[in-house]
Amino acid sequence: MKKILFPTDFSEAATNAFVHALEFAKIVNAELVLLHTFEIPVYDSQFFPENYAAIYSSIELAKFEMFKDEIPKLRAIAEERKLDDIVIKHRLMDGDLIYNLKNAVEEDHIDFVIMGTSGVTDWTKFFFGSNTSSVISEVKVPVLCIPADAKFKKIKVVGFTTRYREKDKAELRKVLAIAKKTNAKVKSLYVKTSNSDVSEATIKEWEKEFANENVEFLVLPSDEVKETILDFILYKDVDVLTTITHKRSFFESLFESSFTKKIAKEVSIPVLVMHETE
Predict the structure, then answer these.
(1) How many angstroms separate the CA atoms of 225 and 121, rounded?
(2) Residues paired with 32 in a beta bridge
(3) What angle do CA 214, 254, 24 make, to 5 degrees?
(4) For residue 100, with 0-12 CB atoms within 10 Å meaning exposed, 13-18 middle and 19 or more buried, which class applies?
């Protein structure tokens, strides 16, 4: 059975992402490990010599009580969606989020991380933010990012962006394996710019190799790469967009605030960030 790590601060965005985490756990037959981290403020012991330990204990106890109070709410969501048979475990850790997250991934042999963002208008902040950049770059497992207003719906189409590099094939196979479990079609996109170095022979070779899979290869000639990917998401009814970490800087720019709010709202979909195969 696979394991999904779900870091949560029990915010509305995180609770929305929890629904996606539950449904994804069902698709890939996984258990959920809920991670809540908190940082204890640094006090100078010389100013609090007598109640120094008591301050720490009271903060830890308060965090534990909040954690304890929130868990039943999440279990109620699982019951409501008839997903209460999914195994849910818990980790409450003191310290830096990224440090604890990396430790949890290694110690619990995590296969995926699923995390919520604070809203579609914060996509740029989310991808530039130190936490998310660190999670994506330092955690060597796929990360599914859920915008706050992306309501869960059945996954029918998975978008996959590629540059037809040989090492992208391994990631495509992983995506196809996930898609197969929910009977989804994978639509692979390559935006062919005027300085593209991908040959027709390479594209044909990919089409032949994946001929028996439920994947459609789209090659769209354009020098407006960002707009083309947005059009792809909108007009191909993409439910989840998969990108690979070499695209992260590009992906940050994809959701810049310079794009209209209308477009931003329409592309409020989960994004699965895969890691390059070495």
Answers:
(1) 21
(2) 4, 88
(3) 45
(4) buried
**Cα–Cα distance for residue pair 128/11, rounded to 1 Å:** 20
Is the pLDDT at 130 greater than 80, yes or no?
no
**Pairwise CA distance, residues 181 & 166, whole Å:** 25
- Global confidence as pTM: 0.80
Q: Does residue 244 carry a pLDDT above 50?
A: yes
- Could you tell me the two tokens for 232? 């792809």
Q: What is the mean pLDDT of the chain?
A: 80
Give the phi and the psi of residue 123 in degrees, each rounded to 5.
-55, -45
Name residue 265's amino acid: K
CA distance 172 to 180: 12
Which domains, and CATH codes, for the chain? 2-146 (3.40.50.620), 157-275 (3.40.50.620)
Secondary structure class of 176 (helix, strand, coil): helix
CA distance 221 to 184: 26
CB 235 within 8 A of CB 266: no
- 93-122: per-residue pLDDT in tens? 877 778 888 889 999 999 999 988 764 444
Q: How far is CA 120 from the centre of its chain?
A: 14
Going by C-alpha positions, the residue among 131, 96, 95, 128 that lies closest to residue 113 is 131
Q: Tell me what the mean pLDDT of segment 129-158 comes to.
A: 77
Where are any strands of DSSP class E within the chain?
2-7, 30-38, 88-94, 112-116, 143-146, 157-161, 185-192, 215-221, 240-244, 271-274
Give the integer Cα–Cα distance in Å for 199 and 163.
Answer: 11
Contact 220, 228 (CB under 8 A): yes
CA distance 245 to 251: 9
Q: Report the pLDDT averaged over residues 221-233.
A: 86
